[in-house]
Design a protein that fits this description.
The complex is a heterodimer. Chain A is mainly α. Chain A is built from 10 helices and no strands. In chain A, helix 1 crosses helix 5 and helix 2 crosses helix 5. Chain A is globular and about 60 Å long. Chain B has a 6-stranded mixed sheet with strand order 6-7-8-3-9-10, with helices on both faces. Classes of the chains: A mainly alpha, B alpha/beta.
Chain lengths: 266, 313
């Protein structure tokens, strides 16, 4: 009994690593996506940082430090982890390679974790890049590293879970990916304070933003990134993020299971 | 190796497999034939654990079908399902890992598989740069990389040119000589005739006839078939009927079944007085048997008097 569990876990591990490596290898082969995912957060950080330096009368270092959370969890991870996971699922359906995976012993959990791992790696690369650029301007990270990593990790997982929901339920073709991200994602991004701080929003939109998970990702990371941070500032956002992540992983899992049963029949 | 007993599957009210019985011996190539919608793909999906049967029993190497039997099966699907930007070698490594193969095992199995399908020289080529025939061979290598006991080939040569087709036939024969058990579905009857040790003809989820080509020949009373071209078809048919030669149409061809082989001179003598433009003799081929089995089933349905399977096969 124990032996078969160990064998299954080993197989899941191998499956997860195979999926993650394959996605990264495909991205590496195409290169353009990888380059764009590096350019995108870098340019958003630089533009946001410069605007904030100018308009808020902050030092460049402070402005860049404040721009990191919205740039990273608000925009960079949104497009890589959410957009990327949708694109992977849709491509797999379009090329019909999903069928080849279904006849193998690969389990759904290993597939989900493989996609999470691949886009997690991309997300970590973006995290390093964003913090490196901020450090280059003189910004210093003074908050809690472990808490910040937890928030970044949860954000990635929430995005991948949402990606599974959308990829499995709504997007059938590659063209659908852009349309869905533009229709659902961009308004959410704008209303999260990722581009314009919510202090500039009218009251009604500010109220709306409080139900926007991206807003809580940004606020949680911003609160955990300051020196002598207070857990009471982080906790409400972290709780929202935890609940949202749990919900999205569950919904993503259910949507994926439904997609599998329809793919099996097609 | 594979035993299917009483397999039944329906989609809503529509039965797609009706108590299918089928057995494949180890090392055998079994051809499953039938028109579109006959139930071939449903059978394959059930074998690959993609679909659950409503009832019936399937065992593979003595084990009932389950997740545990997935590694025993290798499937070459109709389309080439491989990752276009990955090389042949990377595709094989990827699929071998899904079957739990360690790095050491993959190091031995991947080159061996590439050798087996003749793609060693293209190991580093991305799948998207391969020709249609090579992509098919890569699909075969993917199906073989985890050393399955049963290889399922779903219309393996559809869309290939004749050279690539012959190449793949050679590979399939080679696999059989190494002891592989193969289930093949195809619409190409000459392919089935060349490759298969036994054949099953499926229609509307029922196995209408089964056996080796020699056994299936018993379905037809003809020893030989004569294709006749004449302006006086009605007269030729009337003469044939008088002689006891059943007639059939295969496309535009008018054919007569000869109950015993005759010399050409004797055949011409029997149609004396009828202006024949051309006359050609043919051995009884699988296409004639296939046509007859399906015709018998249609006749049976139209008469609504079910014939036992033995009456056809």
């Amino acid at each position: 009994m124990q032996g078969s569990v160990t064998r299954q876990l080993r197989r899941d591990w191998l499956g997860m690593m195979a999926i993650a490596q394959r996605i990264l290898l495909e991205l590496w082969r195409r290169k353009v996506s990888l380059v764009c995912w590096a350019i995108f957060p870098a340019s958003i950080l630089i533009v946001n940082g410069l605007i904030l330096t100018e308009r808020s009368q902050l030092s460049t270092a402070s402005a860049f430090a404040q721009s990191v959370p919205p740039c990273l969890v608000g925009t960079a991870l949104f497009f890589s982890c959410l957009g990327g996971s949708i694109a992977t699922i849709v491509a797999e359906r379009e090329q019909r390679t999903l069928k080849q995976l279904l006849i193998s012993p690969l389990r759904g959990t290993a597939y989900f974790l493989g996609i999470f791992l691949a886009y997690g790696a991309i997300g970590m690369g973006q995290t390093l890049l964003v913090y490196a650029i901020a450090a280059f301007t003189g910004s210093e990270f003074k908050g809690s590293l472990s808490l910040s990593l937890l928030i970044i990790g949860l954000s990635m997982m929430a995005y991948v879970g949402t990606g599974f929901c959308i990829g499995a339920k709504l997007a059938r073709r590659t063209e659908d990916v852009n349309a869905l991200i533009a229709a659902l994602g961009v308004p959410l991004l704008l209303l999260s304070g990722a581009f314009i701080p919510i202090q500039f929003f009218p009251e009604a939109l500010r109220q709306f933003a409080r139900y926007n998970p991206i807003y809580h990702m940004i606020e949680a990371l911003a609160a955990a990134s300051v020196a002598n941070f207070r857990m009471t500032d982080v906790a409400p956002h972290l709780l929202f993020l935890l609940s949202f992540t749990g919900l999205m992983v569950l919904c993503g899992w259910l949507a994926y299971r439904q997609m599998l049963s329809s793919e099996r029949r097609s | 190796m594979l035993h299917i007993q009483n397999l039944y599957k329906s989609y809503g009210d529509r039965a797609v497999l009706q108590n299918l019985h089928l057995s494949i011996a180890p090392g055998e190539i079994y051809g499953l034939l039938g028109p579109n919608g006959a139930g071939k793909t449903t059978t394959i999906r059930i074998l690959c654990n993609l679909l659950a049967a409503d009832s019936g029993r399937v065992t593979l190497s003595g084990q009932p079908l389950s997740e545990a039997t997935k590694p025993l099966i290798g499937l070459v699907p109709q389309e080439n399902l491989q990752y276009a930007s990955l090389t042949c070698e990377e595709n094989l490594h990827f699929f071998a890992r899904l079957y739990g193969r360690s790095r050491q095992q993959r190091k031995e199995q991947v080159p061996a598989c590439l050798d087996a399908v003749g793609l060693r020289s293209r190991a580093k080529s991305p799948a998207e740069t391969l020709s249609g025939g090579m992509k098919r061979r890569l699909s075969l290598a993917i199906a073989l990389v985890h050393h399955p006991k049963l290889l399922i080939l779903d219309e393996p040569t559809t869309g290939l040119d004749i050279e690539a087709r012959i190449d793949l036939w050679r590979l399939i024969r080679q696999l059989q000589s190494q002891g592989m058990t193969i289930l093949l579905t195809t619409h190409l009857l000459d392919e089935a005739e060349r490759l298969c040790d036994r054949l099953g003809i499926l229609k509307r989820g029922c196995l209408l006839a089964e056996g080796s080509l020699a056994e299936l020949r018993q379905c037809i009373t003809a020893q030989e078939i004569v294709i006749v071209r004449t302006a006086a078809e009605a007269a030729a048919i009337a003469r044939a009927e008088a002689l006891g030669f059943p007639h059939r149409r295969y496309g535009d061809d008018l054919a007569f079944w000869l109950p015993e082989p005759l010399e050409m001179k004797d055949i011409i003598d029997r149609f004396d007085g009828i202006p024949l433009e051309s006359i050609a003799r043919q051995p009884v081929r699988l296409e004639h048997i296939y046509d007859e089995v399906l015709r018998g089933e249609s006749h049976e349905r139209s008469q609504e008097t079910p014939l036992p399977l033995e009456a056809i096969s």
